[in-house]
Design goal:
Order of helices and strands: EHEEHEEHHEHEHEE
Number of strands: 9
Number of helices: 6
Distance between the termini: 53 Å
Strand content: 25-35%
Mean pLDDT: 92
CATH topology of the largest domain: GMP Synthetase, Chain A, domain 3
Length: 200
């Protein structure tokens, strides 16, 4: 987050954009102080860019994991409004955990840190050595296989409990597959699961 000061809101936004080398639509800002006196005017904004958010995520991940004595490298990118951060490390089994439980916890911590720092909700996806990408591919092929099975048998299939991001992949695959197929999430918390059923 950076702060800038000028006489008007328009001027201060222009000043921030010039300094950061961006256009106004790339700037997210909040007016933190505004004074309109007879002889003086002042507007102070607190602002940031998408790149600053990505930088913050990468630094936070590197610092958190290096404090735990893990050597890591990070790379981030934005796709469809979601920020992806890939972590490369030699300790992937420890940091991923059984069925990705540690990775999900890390993702939750990073997301909360970002939302607190920038006072805005961001969709963030943390991955370690391509683990999630591999899982998503597995979920996609499983959804297609079960979808074909349900189309043929017209019998509802209940899947094992899955994390939210993996359920999302299955919902999307089935939605794109056939209008006679329907998915529904049921259950609570970590026991939440999906059913795939046939509809006329």
């Amino acid at each position: 987050m950076k702060t800038y000061e000028a006489k008007t809101e328009e001027e201060v936004v222009q000043l921030a954009c010039q300094d950061l080398g961006i256009t106004p639509d790339q700037l997210t800002y909040e007016i933190i102080e505004e004074k309109k006196g007879l002889f003086s005017k002042k507007v102070i904004i607190s602002c940031y860019t998408q790149e600053m958010v990505q930088e913050y995520i990468e630094n936070f991940v590197r610092k958190t994991l290096s404090n735990m004595e893990f050597d890591v490298e990070t790379v981030s990118y934005v796709q469809n409004g979601r920020i992806y951060c890939n972590v490369n490390t030699d300790h992937n089994s420890i940091l991923i955990g059984k069925n990705g439980v540690i990775l999900r916890a890390l993702n939750f911590i990073v997301k909360n840190a970002v939302n607190t720092e920038f006072k805005k909700r961001y969709e963030i996806s943390l991955d370690i050595n391509g683990y999630k990408e591999t899982r998503y591919k597995k979920m996609t092929s499983m959804a297609k296989r079960i979808g074909k099975q349900v189309l043929k048998s017209k019998v509802e299939v209940k899947l094992d409990p899955l994390p939210a991001d993996e359920r999302k992949v299955i919902h999307q695959v089935i939605a794109d597959m056939n209008s006679h197929l329907k998915t529904e999430s049921k259950g609570e918390g970590k026991n939440r699961f999906i059913t795939i059923s046939y509809v006329d």
